[in-house]
Here is the input.
Amino acid sequence: MKKKFIDVVQMSFMAIAVLTALTFTACSSDDDAEGGNNGSIVSVKHAATGIIDTYKVISADYTDYTTSLAQSNEICLSAVLKENEDAISWYEFQFIATQYKETENGTVKDFAGIKNLKEGSRLIISSRRLFFFMGASMSDEETYGASNPHGEVIVKGINGNNLTLELKDFSFTNYGAKAETIINGTIQYTPN
Here is the structure.
């Protein structure tokens, strides 16, 4: 009798543990749907062909070097794009900003951390460490440097350490393809 009682109590605890785990799992997916880049789509136009592809933003992060041990006035932003989450190939692009234009009067200032940016500020993109590359799980990555950045990268919002940017005709010349690539869309970046 005593053994049956202990077995019943143990089974009850196990059932509670399983239900709790399922509840937390369900909550976490709900949270992910509200924030981050789930559902964010960007368009990529390859100027040489005129083809416009749409990609889902799989991940996006940034490194704010104003807060690192080797301080400098720059922020490095990276994003991974796929046709869909199950695609075996992806595109990644990375760019650096060392300056921005203020919202009110358009004054150019050195980047000194996201705390100084405001909604509407425009990042000035540097050609240094501007990359666009394609990778695949079954092959080596093909990395291409890029130059001649144009277009606008506008701060749409800052929520804690998350930075939301809108890319408007953000374009660059891809060395590998020797052609212009143009990206449009809104991406939420999180700290690396």
